[in-house]
Amino acid sequence: MAASKTAAKQSEKKPGRLRRLLQSDQFQMQTLIWPGLILCFVFSYIPMYGILIAFKNYTIGSTMSSAPWVGLKFFQEFWHDPALAGVLRNTLALNGLALLFSFPAPILLALFINEIRNVRFKKVVQTISYLPHFLSWVIFGGIVIEMLMPTGVVSSVLCDLGILKEPVNFMAKGEYFYAIYTIISVIKSVGFGSILYVAAIAGIDQEMYEAAVVDGCGRFQKMWYITLPSITGTIVIMLIFQISSILNTGYEQIILLQNPLNLAFSETLDTYVYKIGIAQSRYSYGAAVGLLKSILSVALMLIANKTSKKLLNRGLF
Fold first, then answer.
1. 69 in helix, strand or coil?
2. Cβ-based neighbours of 162, under 8 Å, separated by 6 or more
3. CB-based contacts of 65: which residues, under 8 Å, 6+ apart?
4. Predicted model pTM
5. What residues contact 252, with CB distance under 8 A and at least 6 apart?
6. What is the pLDDT of residues 245-285, one digit of tens each?
7. Which residues are CB-contacts of 146 (< 8 A; sequence separation ≥ 6)?
8. Contact 68/57 with Cβ under 8 angstroms?
9. 267: Cβ–Cβ under 8 A, 6 or more apart, which residues?
10. CA pair distance 45, 184, nearest whole angstrom
11. Most buried in the list 35, 44, 133, 220, measured by CB within 10 Å?
12. In contact, 153 and 159? CB cutoff 8 Å
């Protein structure tokens, strides 16, 4: 009898499971992410209700509920759109070039920044490389357009070197657009994109480099056998993100460089959706194209992640 009373008193004193959870350090740490989750839910998940527009013939005067249901009409219309082939070609070409040049550029810059021993010079290089990222595309695009005009610095230099016989308006030549866009994208993003890789390199155990020096390895050998393998995880994750966004070029930078003379090479899915959905007020059609693009992006991410885990045993999840 006495033993049962003692057990009852101990159970009363012992805090409940919920109370222990609320008092745990892990729970208190996890509460720090709640504001981010709430913002994500409010601004990312609640607006998904608007996806219904893609399946309805929505106009400004109607509401979401009163708009007539049309099902997959706008998806089929986009599939048979004569502009689809050219738009898809430009989108894949620009993103393919970005995957070929813009993706490895920050990795190479981070590797060379890591090899700079003069701290002051290292900071100067980082500052110069980061600066274009902080210029808006309006300013940066305006500078590029001015430089590539017939009276711009590029034509002047090429004429002085004898490469060109007469000035050329590069922005009026559609066949040059892919190269122009790729070059300026690398210039604008290479510095800021290298920050993540520089941080990953900083976390490498320095004893590995010391052992490599003892074994007689040079700088390039250390980069190839130590630095690159150590940041493979970061590279793989960023590569998966790059592949998943292969249908996204962004519309701001494209539309700033776009003109009627290079339209056949500069019209992408993003600019097409902007012009059709906003400029022509075909909201349902634009929403259908945007939804289809998002579904394909998720599918590409899953495929890239599965392939990466199978080949390299690394992935997002």
1. strand
2. none
3. none
4. 0.83
5. 137
6. 898 887 788 988 998 999 999 999 989 988 888 888 888 99
7. 152
8. yes
9. 83, 86, 87, 90, 258
10. 34
11. 133
12. no
Ramachandran assignment for 75, one of left (phi > 0), alpha (psi -120 to 50 degrees), beta (any other) = alpha
Q: Which residues of 79-115 are buried (b: 16+ CB within 10 A; e: fewer)?
A: eeeeeeeebeebbebbbebbeeebbebbbebbbebbe
What is the pLDDT, as a whole number, of residue 14?
A: 53
Taking each continuous run of H as one helix and of E as one strand, the counts in the chain are: 19, 0
pLDDT category, 107, cuts 50, 70, 90? Answer: very high
Chain CA centroid to CA 209, Å:
32
CA atoms 225, 231, 232, 238: torsion sign? negative
Q: From residue 23, how far is each of 13, 77, 286 by CA, in Å?
A: 15, 57, 49
| Start-to-end CA span in the chain (Å) | 55
The string of pLDDT tens digits covering residues 11-40 is 455 556 766 666 676 777 778 888 889 999
Which residues share a beta bridge with 56?
69
- Cα angle: 14, vertex 17, 23; to 5 degrees: 85
What is the rounded distance in angstroms from the CA atom of residue 179 to the CA atom of residue 153? Answer: 17
Identify the bridge partners of residue 69 per DSSP, sorted by sequence position.
Answer: 56
Nearest Cα residue to 59 out of 294, 290, 277: 277
CA of 111: how far to CAs of 132, 222, 232, in Å? 20, 10, 13
With cut-offs at 50, 70 and 90, classify the pLDDT of residue 6.
Answer: low
DSSP string computed for 261-317? TTHHHH--HHHHHIIIIIIT--HHHHHHHHHHHHHHHHHHHHHHHHHHHHHHS----
Nearest to 69 by CA among 83, 57, 86, 82: 57
Pairwise CA distance, residues 153 & 34, whole Å: 52
Degrees to nearest 5, angle at CA 94 with 175 and 223: 120
Taking phi over 0 as left and psi of -120 to 50 as alpha, with beta for the rest, 63 belongs to beta
